[in-house]
User: Which sequence fits this backbone?
């Protein structure tokens, strides 16, 4: 293994330490797991690729409603109350 020093925001360090304690592993192990996830996913999904996919999905689906832009909060609230 290669020793690497990183800097975390205070709240990140606290949350990471608590998560490590709950899982019974070291903070370093959680960082290694996170890096592995990023490397596995990030190699395939660049920011530009994500933008292209989002643009392709925009407008692809129809709700049948014609006032969603102006009443989206109401529709969202209704969907959560069901």
Assistant:
């Amino acid at each position: 293994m290669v020793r690497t020093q990183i800097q975390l925001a205070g709240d990140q360090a606290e949350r990471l330490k608590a998560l490590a304690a709950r899982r019974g592993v070291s903070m370093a192990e959680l960082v290694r797991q996170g890096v592995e996830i990023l490397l596995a996913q990030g190699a395939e999904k660049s920011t530009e690729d994500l933008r292209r996919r989002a643009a392709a999905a925009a407008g692809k689906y129809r709700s049948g409603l014609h006032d969603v832009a102006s009443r989206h909060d109401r529709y969202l609230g209704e969907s959560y109350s069901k």
